[in-house]
Design goal:
alpha/beta, 2 domains, elongated, 7-stranded mixed sheet, 6-stranded antiparallel sheet, Rossmann fold, Methionyl-tRNA Fmet Formyltransferase, Chain A, domain 2, about 25% strand, about 25% helix
Length: about 300
């Protein structure tokens, strides 16, 4: 089967890698245009583009794919597959050829752009991947395949994305095998059970010490890599590189710093959280005890 693949970040690349290793032929890749990155604002290609070029697959970087339908129609493909593409597809695109989507949640739960982060933030113990038919309504298409995954206590957005990306790639191959053999069976979603997730902003990474340690740790698991987790000490933004629930050892007033045995402990609702790694403005990410040794605390300052 000839596949047109649409995707952009690392999750997409993992799916594409599995698809390229199958008997199905990826005849083209559509991805987001190169974007400026870093201090020098140098243009950087998406991971999907980099991989496709290595495999000599034609790459199309449409700023708006819906405005480039003449070019899309010129591509000879049987099915399109999207995985974290980053653009909303028009009905014209979806009507041209059938299209599947790889979504890292067990739909109809967590429709939207941040299902992995949302599962971790909410402390879920189980998630998975859904292969569904693309429709105009966000993540509302009929389901072809679903597979679950038990979330580990130390899973973060990065580790979970890696695991679900590989799973999604394997399931994509299976889905096209079903379609090719005529054994595909699509099941409508129960819209009454749908939940929706939002886009993430930098402010979502700010720790609220009026929450429990478990909630704060889950926040780090979800947002630690992007957009980053932080709190304020006076006017200083302190970035967090690791957090641990130590409520069975310590109890403290919300936001109060408890320096015990060179461990960076901060009180929160019903207990305390240990800051395993921290970074002051213009400084390096340091272990909690090293941060305590180098950072000058103002008397009575609380973490906020």
């Amino acid at each position: 089967m000839k596949i047109l693949f649409l995707g952009t970040p690392h999750f997409s690349r993992l799916v594409l890698e599995k698809l390229c290793a199958s008997k199905h032929e990826v005849v083209g890749v559509i991805t987001q245009p190169d974007r400026p990155s870093g201090r020098g604002h140098k243009l950087v290609a998406s991971e999907v583009k980099e991989f496709a070029l290595l495999k000599n697959i034609p790459v199309y970087t449409f700023e708006k794919v819906n405005r480039s339908m003449d070019e899309v129609r010129a591509i000879d493909y049987d099915y399109a597959l999207t995985a974290s593409f980053g653009q909303i597809l028009s009905q014209e695109f979806l009507s041209h050829r059938p299209c599947l989507n790889v979504h890292p949640s067990l739909l109809p739960k967590y429709r939207g752009a941040t299902p992995i982060q949302s599962a971790l933030l909410n402390g879920d113990t189980h998630t998975g991947v859904t292969i569904m038919k693309m429709v105009r309504e966000v993540d509302a298409g009929d389901i072809l395949l679903q597979r679950g995954y038990d979330i580990l206590d130390d899973d973060t957005t990065d580790t979970l994305m890696e695991k679900l990306g590989v799973m999604g790639g394997e399931m994509s191959v299976e889905a096209f095998d079903f379609l090719e053999s005529g054994k595909a069976n699509f099941i409508p979603q129960d819209a009454g059970k749908a939940t929706f997730v939002k886009m993430i902003s930098k402010e979502d990474g700010k720790i609220d010490f009026n929450k429990s340690a478990k909630e704060i740790v889950n926040q780090f698991r979800a947002y630690g890599s992007k957009p980053g987790v932080y709190f304020m000490l006076g006017q200083d933004v302190i970035k967090v590189g690791g957090a641990k629930d130590v409520s069975d050892e310590f109890q403290g007033q919300e936001g109060k710093i408890i320096s015990v045995k060179k461990r960076f402990i901060i009180g929160c609702k019903g207990g305390a959280v240990e800051i395993l790694y921290a970074q002051a403005p213009s400084g390096k990410m340091l272990r909690g005890q090293d941060f305590l040794n180098g950072y000058r605390f103002k008397e009575g300052v609380h973490a906020e």
